[in-house]
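Project outcomes to date are best conveyed with an example. Our students and postdoctoral researchers have been running inverse folding experiments weekly, and each run begins with a structure described purely in tokens. The record below, which covers 432 residues, was selected by the lab manager from last quarter's runs and is presented without edits.
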């Protein structure tokens, strides 16, 4: 990872800009990264280095903040110091987590400070702090409670209430590892990368690199989809030759699953850019569906369908291992806002279900308001629906993924194999 300072400056500048967007503006990491790297026009190696710095800094943000506090009890205010905080966080991350050579990380941070009209006045501070971290930082990091520090109070307390402190700690520990890449194979896939095989045609890859460079990508042999995210479609059962309405469908993993299983898919999403990605994915995979650009609340199918899937907007706290920015750009109020919107969408989705049809409601969230509480309230107000409990054999015998008849995957499940996203799903059947 070590490199000459000059070679790494564009990457470090990009990482600094990404971190500024996320931490100062609460902009999602993916959006900030796409915007910054799209403007920076970096070489692939530098772009990868920038992503690594920004992502690992956010994954370990609580630890890095505590580490900096040990040397700078009171950080200078931003209006005077500019990007000094981001430079320090990224530099510390390079030193203690990315294991970049000390001279490269420290010199790179000094160069970034020298280029900024405000941070330049704090260059002596940046230099001194990072040199001390280079010599003392690893010992401090080793003594830290990493799961607790990297989980903000608002999430820690919520998860302790919902799961207990032991499980909360296990979840938080799972968030510290870089997640593997899961790909879902088409049934007749013949070109695929080497990896660890999970049930249901999922292959797990470590250190996969660029997705579009992997064997079988261009040929449409597979698509990217976390193992946990494959379960909601499986809960629908046999969809072959039947109409399946996929609501909030983009970017299209579940749509591809439905189409590959032989369903006649109607894929509804209101975001034109995301819907375009769905269309491109289907074209690459040689799969067919009917994409419809519409707000779910404004969409009325020609007739009610036997299968409806709603992967509802939510707080997305089940995906923190892949989106380490989420704990730091969201708060408890966001959970309540998402839950209110999902309740409306769930009622709209229910109206699309044919008599004796199945509605699967899913969220990539660990929050009860997004999942179990949402379904409990729905069943109370919609007596024509009943919960259809999920059996262990429907989730490959992994009974620990089921709670009270519903799917509850946690990031710490399959921990030895790299974990999985946190998902909640309930299967609801309409009376005939």
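After processing, the design step wrote out the following sequence:
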């Amino acid at each position: 990872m070590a490199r000459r300072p000059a070679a790494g400056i564009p990457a470090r500048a990009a990482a600094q800009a990404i971190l500024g967007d996320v931490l100062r503006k609460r902009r999602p990491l993916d959006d900030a990264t796409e915007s910054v790297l799209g403007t920076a026009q970096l070489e692939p190696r530098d772009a990868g280095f920038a992503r690594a710095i920004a992502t690992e800094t956010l994954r370990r943000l609580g630890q890095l903040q505590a580490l900096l506090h040990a040397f700078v009890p009171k950080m200078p205010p931003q209006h005077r110091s500019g990007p000094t905080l981001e430079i320090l966080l990224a530099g510390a991350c390079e030193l203690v987590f990315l294991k970049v050579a000390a001279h490269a990380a420290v010199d790179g941070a000094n160069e970034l400070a020298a280029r900024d009209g405000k941070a330049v006045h704090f260059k002596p501070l940046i230099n001194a702090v990072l040199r001390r971290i280079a010599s003392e930082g690893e010992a401090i990091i080793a003594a830290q409670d990493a799961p607790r520090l990297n989980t903000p109070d608002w999430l820690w307390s919520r998860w302790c209430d919902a799961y207990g402190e032991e499980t909360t700690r296990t979840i938080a520990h799972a968030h510290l590892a870089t997640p593997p890449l899961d790909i879902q194979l088409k049934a007749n896939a013949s070109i695929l990368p080497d990896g660890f095989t999970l049930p249901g045609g999922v292959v797990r890859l470590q250190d996969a690199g660029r997705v579009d460079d992997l064997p079988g990508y261009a040929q449409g042999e597979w698509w990217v989809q976390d193992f946990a995210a494959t379960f909601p479609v499986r809960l629908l059962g046999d969809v072959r030759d039947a109409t399946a309405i996929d609501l909030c469908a983009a970017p299209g993993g579940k749509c591809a699953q439905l189409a590959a299983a032989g369903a006649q898919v109607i894929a509804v999403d209101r975001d034109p850019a995301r819907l375009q990605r769905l269309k491109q994915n289907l074209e690459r995979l040689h799969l067919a569906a009917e994409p419809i650009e519409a707000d779910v609340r404004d969409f009325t199918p020609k007739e009610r369908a036997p299968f409806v899937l709603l992967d509802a907007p939510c707080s997305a706290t089940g995906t923190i291992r892949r989106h380490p920015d989420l704990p730091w750009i969201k708060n408890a109020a966001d959970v309540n806002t998402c839950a209110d919107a999902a309740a409306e969408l769930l009622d709209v989705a229910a109206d699309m279900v044919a008599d004796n049809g199945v509605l699967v409601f899913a969220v990539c969230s660990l929050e009860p308001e997004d999942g179990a509480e949402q379904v409990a309230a729905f069943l109370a107000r919609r007596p024509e629906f009943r919960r259809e409990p999920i059996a262990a054999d429907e989730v490959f015998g992994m009974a620990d993924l089921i709670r009270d008849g519903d799917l509850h995957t946690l990031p710490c499940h399959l921990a030895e194999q790299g974990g999985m996203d946190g998902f909640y799903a309930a299967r609801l059947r309409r009376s005939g």
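The chain has a mean pLDDT of 95. Residues 411 and 419 are 5 Å apart (CA to CA). The training component of this project remains on track.
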